[in-house]
Amino acid sequence: MRSADDSGRSFYITTPIYYVNDLPHIGHSYTTIGADAQARYHRLLGEPVLFSTGTDEHGQKIARSAEARGLKPQELVDEVVEAWQRMWKRLHIDYDRFIRTTDSHHVATVQYVFRRLRESGDIYLGEYQGWYCIPCETHLLESELVGGDCPECKREVEQVTEPAYFFRTSAYSDRLREHIERHPEFILPESRRNEVLSFMGEGLRDACISRGHTEWDIPVPDDDTQSIYVWFDALINYLSQVGYPDDLDEFGQWWPPRLELMGKDILTRFHATLWPAILMALDLPLPETLFAHGWWITAQGDRMRKSKGNVLHPYEVARELADISGATTAVAVDSLRYFLLREVTFGLDASFSWRGLLSRFNADLANDLGNLLNRTLPLVERYLEKKIPEPGPGAGELAAEIDRVRALVEQEMAEYSFSAALVAIWELVASANKFLDTRAPWTLHKEAKQVELEAVLYDVLDCVRVLAIMVSPFMPAICDEIWRQLGLESAGAEKSWDDCRALQLPSGIAIEPGRPIFPRVDIRRAMDRLQARSERAEQSAAEQQAVARADTVTIEQFAQLDLRVGTILEAHRIPGADKLLRLIVDVGESESRQIVAGIAKQFNPREMLNINVVVVANLEPATIHGVESQGMILAVGAEEPEALVVADRLCPPGTVVR
Ligand code: MSP
Fold this sequence. Notes:
The protein is of the alpha/beta class. It folds into 3 domains: about 5-295, Rossmann fold (3-Layer(aba) Sandwich); about 350-500, Isoleucyl-tRNA Synthetase, Domain 1; about 535-645, CATH 2.40.50.140. About 45% of the residues lie in helices and about 15% in strands. The strands form 7 sheets. Strands 1, 2, 3, 4, 8, 12 and 13 form a 7-stranded parallel beta sheet that branches. A 5-stranded antiparallel beta sheet has the order 18-17-16-19-22. Helix 13 packs parallel to helix 15. It is globular. The model has no long low-confidence stretch (mean pLDDT about 90).
């Protein structure tokens, strides 16, 4: 663990790279907001910081999601990655590097590592027999399945037997165990470290790091029958982010990472075992700390799942909070960041509740921090013509308290205890509020004690300045607004951690009071409104789930399908979508439909003309690759279309299929 004394040492901090088959939710944001707060704090300390994040774009999951949407995987990832980057911007995430595993320099690094380890004998060709969980992209042993399903996501697994490359993790078990035992800061929190040690048991088994060739994954170099396993590919992002192996100057500047943050689900199997073993095989130093945080679940205690309709998207939550409170969206975003990092000790699980968020918003932000500012600035306006006074004799009364809190925050941040750091900062907020109450500038004014009045107001304003800096890693936009209202932005004042000391506030500056940053929320009314909304959402999710769950259909449900014979009149390729054809199909009653079908790889458009296919004629229209599809044609084949379902030529278009 490091402290503020480390200034000058570089601070390379990483988040996991996120799968792009989904949009970011509160859970993903938690890892990234935590990393952002640490990165911002270390920048304030004056250290060179490199904060990296990115997207994990290979794997079966992505290929299948793309196929389901009739897109090429590259098209899907290009589209979704933008949503992730937009989200990070909206959540005030200030990363330095964003890697995509489809970036050519990353692909080259992965292939370099693979080659090198195969040459050194750390990677060898064997045979994989077992189970594979596609959603988790994880190989599993029979003994690891729970009720036949994946132990992590509880979904079905697939059986596979295939030649595959293995990484000799087993060879590094002893060294790794020794490293973990000798470096208590390597895996945090401590409870996770114990979990990793017990997972390692008598030793690690070799990891399967390839699978049969797929179109979408990184090919194994010099073996076109195999592709690289997505986790092997993904972990190496931490190396390719900093120039490995081509730019060793750059690499030397940042390696090893000081902090790798992740959720507890991806610590044991991947980051705490496979990853350090790969680094040992490459003769590279290990990251200083792997920190696994807890899991955010819903207020009802459920894991967030798209299929359950209970996923919370951070920006939507922030917008709702802005709407409820009247705060700006930027303030609401920061309030959510505050809530996530304050509500629970980093490392433990937490459940998200609106009541919890609104209570913290009112108590900590509106009442404590907001009030301090809202009480102080009008006094400066009234008694001091809006100007920050000279400190004068007697100022600096809060100096010791500021020093105490600064030291506490440094200690807590060095231990990644965001919540405790915020508790400490709020002790300073309370001290400043109390100081204002007991030194009562309004009385000093009445008693015409101008020197004392100025000293007291100087101290409070100075303390607000310190608080703005202290909260900035957590709430950057709120810090900026306080800075602006103090007049420090116009004065061009810079922020550094070293300025979190008393008597550094420049005098003579004109304050610029604005609207209260945190308008108080009427929690009861807000909860009623949220309740009504969530009931509506729950109902529609339940309806959708009921439809999705049913594994049989009634004859009435089947009868609802309008299946008809259709004759293909035209077939065209769609530019930029090499799987899709645009068909014009005569579906009878002089009606022709435009239908987009994912069959371009198997069928030549010219050969399609005049074929009588089976059309689902009452399918809801959808836009696929910018082209409206007014139905679907049926094909045979589970993965790829192998043949079309055709009707006898004697059937005219429009003939009902039953
Ligand atoms: N792609 C892999 C990581 C590869 S890193 C070399 C992956 N991606 S993920 O998108 O599924 O998850 C990324 C991070 O989000 C993980 O740290 C995970 O723990 C975190 N979270 C996802 N849902 C979460 C919650 N509900 N709560 C807290 N964090 C969780 O895994």
